[in-house]
């Protein structure tokens, strides 16, 4: 029972270990699949990102071309005048739907706005403006077009302001600062082509830009509040650095996409665990059946099949050094007189006493016949000592129920190499010596 419990605990431990190890492997595989597919999704996003950046550059350059057009008109007119500004602005805005308003700022002060309604607050001196005054000075001194913002218009739309410094040649042919040509454009409309394509491909986005004086990225427009592990790229246009971030609207990888892999992997884990359990059961059963087939059920000793296998193994390894054959004297008389139950008790007790008299493997090879295989080189005197121990072991009676019986045994042995070098020869000599001792026993009993 104890051995069975140990075997059961060992089986449970091994099966549990196989299950846990399989689940660990499955987790690693699933993580690998997740990482690989995410990497593939990000590679596709990177290709999309590059295309969208080209479209954004086009959109930004298109916005800057508005102020460049106004700049050219001002340079061509005497003293930088644009008397029909409203008509010019109206025509420009008719072609460019993304324009919120157009402005002229002679000497840095905004004096003309189209449309004026709702934009009266922009009639200011740009050099004195709190947030972008320094930027206006920078643009005047360097002749650099600047992109300001983002900021919110009175219509609560996000916009950016493009300021193009205008320089007019004086009567002496020297360029002098005239002021600014300004276009306020709707951020989302200016980048509509890129935005529409991102939506068509199922991507969320966020667009940022810096100012000429710092590297801080300021959000221009986005389709979601928080970007999760976005693919991003920076690009330079209109004198500042821009950054576009994109990610799939539903995330890089949906768990539902992994369900088939997970279910199939779990099936394999359970199948492997079940197979391991079945194999261990079969192995235990095979071992049990093997032990049963090699054991004598009555005495618990090894049986004749085990004797033959062990002897063959010892012969192959040149380890067979001796054989004992032992036979119970007048066992048939015990069975006939006291019954088979008593006979069985006698055989069990004989087995115990033979095992106690030697340190070698003991076998029951017949009804009342036993054998011992000696697997190491010992002197003949040791063989004689074993015989003496066996004889003394049966000086005590054997009790079976109400019966008290004196039992004796006949013993014969042969040892290598004095008695022979051939295994069959050793068996024959040991058997003959046992038979001779048995004959002497019967002769002595007859005389009595």
Outline of the structure:
By secondary structure, this protein is α+β, with helices and mostly antiparallel strands. The protein has eleven helices and 15 strands.
Give structural notes.
There is one protein chain. The protein has 448 residues and is α+β, with helices and mostly antiparallel strands. It has two domains: 38-248, Beta-Lactamase; 304-447, 2-Layer Sandwich (Alpha-Beta Plaits), CATH 3.30.70.270. 50% of the residues lie in helices and 24% in strands. It is built from eleven helices and 15 strands. It has helices at residues 2-76, 85-95, 133-142, 187-190, 192-200, 259-293, 304-316, 331-338, 340-357, 380-393, 423-447; strands spanning 99-106, 112-114, 146-152, 158-169, 175-186, 203-211, 214-222, 231-237, 240-248, 322-328, 361-364, 369-374, 398-400, 403-405, 409-415. Strands 2-1-5-4-3 form a five-stranded antiparallel sheet, sandwiched between helices. Strands 7-6-9-8 form a four-stranded antiparallel sheet, covered by helices on one side. Strands 11-12-10-15 form a four-stranded antiparallel sheet, with helices on both faces. It is rod-shaped. The two termini are 49 Å apart. The model has no long low-confidence stretch (mean pLDDT 86).
Name the features.
448 residues; Alpha-Beta Plaits; four-stranded antiparallel sheet; 11 helices; 50% helix; five-stranded antiparallel sheet; Beta-Lactamase
């Amino acid at each position: 029972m104890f051995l069975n419990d140990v075997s059961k605990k060992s089986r449970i431990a091994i099966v549990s270990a196989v299950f846990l190890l399989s689940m660990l492997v499955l987790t690693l595989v699933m993580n690998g699949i997740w990482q690989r597919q995410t990497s593939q999704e990000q590679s596709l996003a990177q290709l999309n990102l590059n295309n969208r950046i080209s479209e954004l550059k086009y959109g930004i350059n298109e916005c800057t071309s508005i102020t460049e057009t106004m700049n050219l008109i001002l340079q061509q007119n005497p003293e930088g005048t644009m008397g029909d500004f409203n008509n010019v602005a109206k025509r420009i805005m008719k072609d460019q739907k993304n324009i919120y308003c157009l402005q002229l700022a002679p000497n840095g002060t905004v004096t003309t706005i189209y449309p004026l309604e709702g934009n009266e607050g922009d009639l200011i001196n740009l050099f004195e403006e709190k947030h972008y005054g320094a930027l206006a000075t920078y643009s005047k001194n360097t002749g650099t077009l600047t992109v300001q913002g983002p900021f919110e218009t009175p219509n609560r739309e996000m916009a950016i302001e493009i300021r193009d410094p205008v320089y007019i040649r004086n009567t002496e042919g020297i360029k002098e600062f005239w002021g600014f040509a300004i276009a306020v454009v709707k951020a989302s409309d200016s980048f509509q082509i890129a935005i529409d394509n991102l939506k068509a491909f199922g991507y969320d986005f966020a667009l940022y830009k810096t100012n000429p004086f710092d590297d801080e990225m300021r959000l221009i427009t986005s389709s979601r509040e928080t970007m999760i592990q976005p693919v991003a790229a920076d690009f330079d246009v209109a004198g500042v650095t821009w950054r576009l971030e994109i990610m799939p609207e539903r995330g890089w990888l949906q768990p539902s996409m992994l369900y088939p892999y997970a279910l199939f992997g779990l099936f394999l884990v359970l199948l492997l665990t079940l197979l391991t359990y079945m194999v261990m059961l079969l192995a235990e059963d095979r071992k049990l059946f093997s032990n049963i087939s090699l054991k004598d059920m009555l005495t618990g000793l090894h049986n004749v099949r085990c004797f033959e296998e062990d002897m063959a193994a010892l012969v192959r390894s040149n380890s067979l050094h001796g054989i004992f054959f032992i036979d119970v004297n007048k066992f048939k008389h015990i069975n006939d007189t006291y019954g088979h139950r008593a006979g069985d008790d006698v055989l069990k007790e004989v087995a115990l006493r033979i095992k106690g008299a030697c340190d070698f493997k003991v076998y029951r090879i017949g009804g009342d016949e036993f054998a011992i295989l000696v697997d190491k080189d010992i002197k003949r005197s040791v063989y004689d000592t074993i015989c003496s121990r066996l004889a003394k072991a049966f000086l005590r009676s054997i009790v079976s129920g109400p019966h008290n019986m004196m039992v004796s045994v006949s013993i014969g042995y042969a040892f290598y190499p004095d008695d022979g070098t051939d295994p069959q020869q050793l068996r024959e000599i040991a058997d003959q010596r046992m038979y001779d001792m048995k004959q002497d026993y019967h002769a002595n009993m007859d005389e009595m």
